[in-house]
Design a protein that fits this description.
The complex is a heterodimer. Chain A is an alpha/beta fold. In chain A, 30% of the residues lie in helices and 24% in strands. A seven-stranded mixed β-sheet of chain A has the order 2-4-3-1-5-6-7, covered by helices on one side. In chain A, strands 8, 9, 10, 11, 12, 13 and 14 form a seven-stranded mixed β-sheet that branches. In chain A, a hairpin with a 7-residue loop joins strand 9 and strand 10. In chain A, helix 4 crosses helix 5. The N and C termini of chain A lie far apart (58 Å). By secondary structure, chain B is mostly helical. In chain B, 59% of the residues lie in helices and 8% in strands. Chain B contains eleven helices and six strands. In chain B, a hairpin with a 5-residue loop joins strand 2 and strand 3. Chain B is globular and about 40 Å long. The chains are: A alpha/beta, B mainly alpha. Chains A and B meet through helix 1, helix 2 and helix 5 of A and helix 1, helix 2, helix 7, helix 9 and helix 10 of B.
């Protein structure tokens, strides 16, 4: 596409909250919106939106001379971190609200009972409720689409600076309960299955899931490429290249557990597979060093652990004890490359849980 | 020789990104400087008025020699602290930035830099970069896997054409440039080629 379709542009302008705020409140509205967005990012660094009960309102008055609104029992904070601590200490804040004052202070109400419609005309109003980000624009609700709803709020989608941190986040948010729409298709029986067996050859799907995740959260600084040839035998699953630096990461993915094909044939991958993966990754690192010795390359072994205890080809469900038998069973590596090589990161095992029957 | 505009822009961008991200990757300085330059085209300024040029790498990343030189100078003179491939504005860097921003030579650039950097409040950087990779020049360079200069005369006309369509809907007089920036990035991201490629829209279960 070289030329923009004016109708498409109008469609986007009419749906995007930023342009809607410009239309409804003018430039002052957008300037005020920026203050709200900055505060949201800071708040959600310390308040996990997933743990917000009820709702959280954040607003700023358009009149820069206006003070805090006249409601009882506000608490004043100069730092979002301290507000978040206060929020967290109370297990039952239900309908809380934060007003951003003109001097940057934050007024916090734990129980906010003002009708939001009273603010529409004089403030930019944001509401977080039920995993939705909503702006109230002259009485209309404008919901912000979330391209990655594993994160409860669009404004809490992180940018990671360290690959290790990103992988840890992926482990707990995306894989633990198979939240990723791509990843959840690795289960035999699909999204509605009890997650006992993987499909035949789930590797490519797992790789695609991790590539998509890293693409979003590693910011504008790294190139994420799947299946990159390192040697003649097998491509490494993912290669991460940081732009304008000599840094590289090679990510190898192995899965543990059982897969089942349509004929009912089971393939079993034990912890041996993880050790095999570690050996493979060490060889990739050696090959890579031979090719590009000036690069700083680091190897990451990701082990997707879908093991369940006592599964047979006829198993249709699993109890909690057997389903989570391997939850904390870490893998012993021998050799432990992460202890003897400087370029080998400690392997990350990502246990992915089943849906268990109630016994 | 240090380009004074790149010298200022790199400090300004670090200042703004640091508030949200904590530190800045050098690739991000190039990315947002390029986006700021494009926003000046939205206001119908010629690309030459930005006073330094950009090229595109084979991987599709905007790059600027002038910015690169300035960043290295900032690191050497203590205005930026370099840690693990990221940079942070030091106290001295902040002071120098605050002095430079008052100069007429520099302060006209701030709304464009502000507009560009503010997009990270409304979009993950990964999506910003992927959207920008659909910009006609960058997309063409990526498809041919070639590095070359950006914003040549012929290519500027395409950008002006796109922005003309944009401004006919939003208005060219808009001061808050985050608005045309986000609308344009959204338009780019919704092109067919982007949807079929590797990107993060709608990949998670609700």
């Amino acid at each position: 596409m070289i030329y923009l379709d004016p109708n498409k542009v109008k469609e986007i302008v009419n749906s995007l909250y930023v342009s809607q705020i410009l239309e409804a409140y003018g430039e002052t509205g957008v300037t005020t919106l920026r203050d709200i967005l900055e505060t949201l990012h800071k708040l959600f660094q310390f308040i996990e939106p997933e743990l917000v009960k009820g709702s959280l309102l954040v607003f700023k008055l358009l009149d820069s001379n206006a003070g805090p609104i006249d409601l009882p029992n506000p608490q004043r904070f100069t730092n979002p971190q301290y507000l978040a601590q206060e929020y967290a200490t109370d297990s039952h804040p239900y309908n809380s609200a934060v007003q951003i004052c003109s001097n940057g202070d934050l007024m916090f109400w734990k129980d906010f009972n003002l009708d939001v419609t009273q603010l529409h005309d004089r403030a930019i109003v944001y509401l977080y409720k039920n995993r939705q980000d909503i702006f109230f624009i002259r009485g209309n609700q404008c919901i912000v689409p979330n391209p990655s709803p594993v994160y409860a709020s669009f404004f809490s989608i992180p940018t990671f600076r360290l690959l290790r941190d990103a992988l840890e986040n992926y482990k707990w948010r995306w894989i633990r309960t198979s939240r990723c729409r791509i990843f959840c298709t690795v289960w035999h029986g699909g999204e509605e299955s009890h997650r006992l067996f993987f499909i035949n050859g789930p590797e490519s799907t797992m790789r695609r899931s991790l590539v998509q995740f890293l693409d979003t959260v590693l910011g504008g600084i790294a190139e994420i490429r799947p299946e990159q040839v390192i040697d003649e035998t097998h491509p490494v699953d993912i290669k991460v290249t940081w732009m304008f630096s000599n840094r590289l990461a090679l990510v190898e993915i192995k899965w543990l557990g059982k897969s089942i094909n349509d004929e009912g044939k089971i393939v079993r991958h034990t912890d041996y597979r993880a050790r095999e993966g570690a050996q493979q990754l060490a060889e990739y690192l050696d090959e890579n060093y031979a090719e590009v010795p000036t690069h700083q390359t680091r190897g990451y072994l990701v082990v997707i652990d879908g093991r369940r205890r006592g599964l047979s080809s006829s198993s249709k469900s699993v109890n909690h004890r057997d389903g989570f038998w391997y939850e904390d069973k870490e893998i012993t590596y021998n050799p432990a490359f992460h202890l003897i090589r400087e370029d080998f990161e400690e392997p990350i095992r990502m246990f992915t849980g089943p849906i268990c029957r109630v016994d | 020789m240090i380009n004074p505009f790149a010298y200022f822009d790199s400090l300004s961008i670090c200042r703004r990104l640091q508030d949200t991200l904590g530190n800045t990757a050098i690739a991000e300085i190039y990315l947002f400087a390029y986006l700021a330059c494009l926003l000046s085209l939205y206001k119908k300024l010629p690309a030459s008025s930005w006073e330094y040029q950009f090229s595109i790498t084979k991987e599709g990343y905007p790059y600027s020699v002038a910015l690169d030189t300035s960043v290295q100078d900032h690191i050497n003179s203590g205005l930026l602290d370099s840690k693990e491939y990221y940079v942070e504005l030091t106290e001295s860097g902040d002071e120098v930035y605050n002095q430079l921003r008052t100069l007429e030579l520099n302060n006209w650039r701030e709304p464009f830099i502000e507009g560009a950097c503010s997009t990270i409040l409304a979009m993950p950087i990964g999506i910003i970069r992927k959207s920008l990779s659909q910009e006609p020049e960058i997309k063409s360079a990526l498809e041919l896997s070639q590095s070359r200069m950006l914003l040549t005369n012929a290519e500027q006309s395409i950008i002006y054409e796109q922005f003309s369509t944009l401004s006919s809907v939003i208005g060219i007089e808009v001061r808050e440039l985050i608005v045309p920036a986000l609308v344009w990035l959204k338009c780019l991201s919704e092109q067919e080629g982007f949807k079929s490629g590797s990107q993060a829209i709608d990949i998670s279960r609700s």
